[in-house]
TrEMBL record, chains A, B:
Gene3D superfamilies associated with the record: 3.30.465.10, 3.30.70.2190, 3.30.70.2740, Uridine Diphospho-n-acetylenolpyruvylglucosamine Reductase, domain 2, Vanillyl-alcohol Oxidase, Chain A, domain 4
Keyword annotations from UniProtKB, A to Z: FAD, Flavoprotein, Oxidoreductase
Domain called FAD-binding PCMH-type: residue spans: 113-292
Zinc-finger found in the keyword field: no
Domain of life where this protein originates: Eukaryota
Family named by the database record: Belongs to the FAD-binding oxidoreductase/transferase type 4 family.
Cofactor(s) for this UniProt protein: FAD
Organism placement in taxonomy: Eukaryota, Fungi, Dikarya, Ascomycota, Saccharomycotina
Residues in coiled coil: none
Protein name as annotated: D-2-hydroxyglutarate--pyruvate transhydrogenase DLD2
């Protein structure tokens, strides 16, 4: 018998919610070997932590077709002397001989990209960000703004010798109004720190994601991150109220005073939400925090096929309605890798199934929420939609169930590396992309036991947002695999009217694929805006569009 | 005894929710003279309906300092011949001698502004909108895009001889996906029609406002309207997923295929949400509909002072949390005017109080919602926050309670006219603006019994959004009153870090006041974007910025 409250097909009334006080209720203790996303992110804080042990090649070598833009000036000792004139010792780091001292800022988290920057600037004030940008713009020095450097598309690291401008030292919480829920902070505040601060005041940050222990609030906004709470709290385009932004020419544009509603003029801040550092540097964020839920439930369910996952989603929207805060799905292969990776951690279900669903509810009344969840589970079991499942009985179990979803990204690269695609697709055709990739890789002779490069393709993601994470677990990165996948994945998405980047952004990886999601007219305007704000093209070059 | 379920200070347990089945429960029938916002809006559909009987003066006469821009060409018979070459009889209306035939399109709803357009175009296709714009741009003919013409800042009518381009004939619902909730329609679909359509499928439009019977979905988006559901469903910047827009040069930009998440490139559609027809014409809208609540409760409460209104709001956020869908406040003067206006309709409370609150909850489980509301009301009564109140017992009573809030705008002009201000202010200083206006108008000798021009200033609005509607009820519009109010109101808002337009937009009325809410850097970028998209300045000139 599983240690969670339990659901199974033949005895569907045996599941129990915490308040029901069933006999076999107990706390699941995962033991010393337990991972939790919390621990992982804390590790990230203390030392640079990568998704892979494979050392990356220089981006310039991996992508020889991308050439350094000769309009940009090379860094000189005069430039460094100028920066030193107003930055302290700790705000300016010159690369040593082997670049080791700033390697963590030159390489991305996935270790797919590696830049060759010789200079890392970490200003402590917005005014100094402005001075840096003004100088770089006048002298045509290219710049990569960098937050927590947790991006998944190579957007936050240099491609060649761009100066790295890190926001890590601009990291103060500015103010919070507990009546309106408006929270203001510097861009460099770690997402988890912002959320911890808000939780103490009865609120939460309206966005959550796996990298919360190292990503910055400013980076989250600049990349328009999605994450785990979007289904409930909506996108950052709705919750961000104001920004402080340094433009390429050094001008500071400030809308941090905005209240919840301000309908005067174009909503300029929206341009910077998701601009990936290409037209300005976000230095401050004002955002509407959400009241902290008083009750949270999590259940982990199994279904027989993908069609049923969709039915469970429709049912959950109907029955859980305003308390539904997450609806995540995972295929069997996702959890196969995660089981391997978590080793001794006990899997919540006794058997294996083709698809799993994690549902979270968040509300203000535990009794009401339990009752709604109970009614939903009972009807889903009775109609044969859900074939097995468990409901977390306490905070520990809740965190443990979540880890089976949150550890998938890390587990998916445990064989060596991973090709990550993050796409939006209409719900009905979402999973067929994963199947198509496995077929295609098998046919190409690339998928199978070692030494074949590909382990397999897995699919998981935010069903509630129409967002699939397609991960191709590999033993090594090869050009053959890349050619087999691209542009195939993008063409598939385009033909199904999806987006080639649901939440990860474009960065370096998807620069050339925007045409699969945007029309020529849109791309023309996007380029136009880029050129207008950044006529010298110094902001995060070789990326985005 | 009042006919609603009843709350009062001394016997706070006497209130009853519908399921409690109290003895005195009965349906309030308002009788033949009853108004309902529903009836009013239906009237609007059948004939043009204004807020005032006072005929407007020409804007050119009221504001002699505003001069016609001589860059614009005057309409010629060649121009009309060109438009006739592809538009049918019903799509092109030339003004007759007295302009009577297109007066309803030249005048705004408040009858404060009156243009002198000689040509009304009502194309039936987006392609023809594009042809019109291309021609107007090449020939420097100024254009006013017009939706339902229900705006409150003179933004949707011409100032001089601009061509009126109405979207009324582009009015088809395009598609709806009941799994994702994504709804797509033409810009000219009436908001109420869109909502009715969605309700049949178990969803609602995520925005509601008093003018729903005549305003267009496209107009709502182009002006970034707020309305009554913002507290629950957030702003249009979060819920609009894609737009179809015709640019000033005639190019059609289309992002209607977007799914819930698309993170590729700047989110261009956001520029058009709230652009008030100054850089493009919204012709199609894709928006995320919200599931239709299965249960709705409304209560109408009284408090002794404004400080207590704030306390009730904080309490409601805590206790009603995810089911709180509206929190509206009204001062005594607002309801004094509404009582006069509604005449024989019975007021829900027996006594009068300084402040009233309307709270709406929307949820998926009637029993749970009733229980939450009951607990909230009990605690608010026990702590002396709420001194009287009623809870609607059925749909009819619910609509009747809402009308005491929804009829305020109309009632506020029943003495002749109204100066309307729609501002964001921090909650604590929100009502002091109303008090300051009454004091100032009294000191200036402008407020009092006839023949003094001002009846008094009233305050009401969306507490949940920090949004105050300040209405100055007047017997006539005079320059003295206007000078007494402006820039005073704007200066007050600026000094409290508010917005001079929370949801009404800028239009003609607030063009010169954007500087009270936006910094010079922001205004520079806004002007820059305007000039960039519309270099000939033909789109909705003399307005916005």
């Amino acid at each position: 018998m599983n240690k969670y409250g339990r659901l199974c097909r033949s005895t569907h009334l045996r599941f129990a919610l915490p308040h029901a006080g069933i006999a076999n209720r107990s706390v699941l203790v995962l033991g010393r070997k337990a991972y939790s996303s919390q621990r992982v992110v804390n590790n990230i804080r203390n030392h640079r932590w990568y998704s892979s042990k494979l050392a990356p090649k220089l981006t310039a070598e991996s992508y020889p077709d991308v050439k350094r833009d000769q309009r940009f000036k090379s860094l000189s000792s005069e430039d460094i002397a100028y920066f030193r004139s107003f930055l302290s010792e700790s705000e300016l780091v010159e690369a040593n001989e082997g670049n080791d001292n700033i390697a963590a800022f030159n390489e991305d988290w996935m270790r797919k990209y590696k830049g060759q920057s010789k200079l890392l600037l970490k200003p402590k004030t917005v005014v100094n960000v402005s001075r840096i940008m003004k100088y770089c713009n006048e002298n045509k020095l290219a710049v990569v703004p960098q937050g927590g450097n947790t991006g998944l598309v190579g957007g936050s690291v240099p491609v060649f010798d761009e100066i790295i401008l890190s926001l890590a030292n601009i990291n103060k919480i500015r103010e919070f109004d507990p009546v309106s829920g408006i929270f203001k902070c510097d861009a460099g505040v770690i997402l988890e720190a912002a959320n911890d601060y808000l939780e103490e005041q009865g609120y939460i940050f309206p966005l959550d994601l796996g990298a919360k222990g190292s990503c910055h609030v400013g980076g989250v906004v600049a990349t328009n991150a999605g994450g785990l709470r979007l289904l409930r709290y909506g996108s950052l385009h709705g919750s961000v109220l104001g920004l402080e932004v340094v433009l390429p020419n050094g001008k500071i544009v400030n809308s941090m005073h905005s209240l919840r509603k301000d309908n005067t003029g174009y909503d300029l801040k929206q341009l910077f939400v998701g601009s990936e550092g290409t037209i300005g540097i976000v230095t401050g964020v004002s955002i509407l925090a959400a009241p902290k839920p008083k009750a949270t439930n999590v259940c982990f369910l199994a279904t027989d096929d993908y069609a049923t996952v969709q039915k469970v989603f429709v049912r959950a929207k109907q029955e859980l309605s305003e308390i539904l805060s997450a609806f995540e799905f995972m295929d069997d292969k996702s959890l196969l890798l995660t089981k391997e990776h978590l080793k001794d951690v006990q899997f919540p279900l006794e058997n294996e199934y083709p698809f799993y669903i994690l549902i979270e509810t968040s509300g203000s009344n535990k009794e009401h929420d339990d009752s709604k969840l109970e009614a939903f589970l009972e009807s889903a079991m009775e109609d044969g939609l859900v074939v097995d499942g468990v409901v977390a009985q306490d905070e520990t179990e809740l965190a443990n169930l979540w880890q089976w979803r949150e550890m998938i990204p890390e587990s998916s690269q445990s064989h060596g590396g991973v090709y990550k695609y993050d796409v939006s697709l209409p719900l009905k055709s979402m999973y067929s992309l994963v199947e198509a990739c496995n077929e295609r890789l098998t046919e190409a002779g690339l998928l199978g036991d070692a030494p074949k490069p590909v382990v397999f393709a897995i699919g998981y993601g935010h069903v509630g947002d129409g967002n699939l994470h397609l991960n191709i677990a590999v033993r090594e990165y090869t050009k053959d695999v890349e050619k087999c996948l691209e542009p195939f994945v993008y063409e598939f998405v385009q033909s199904h009217f999806g987006s080639v980047s649901a939440e990860h952004g474009l960065g370096f990886q998807k620069k050339n694929y925007i045409g699969y999601s945007k029309t020529p007219e849109e791309i023309e305007i996007i380029k136009d805006i880029k050129n207008h704000f950044d006529p010298n093209g110094i902001m995060n070059p070789y990326k985005y569009v």
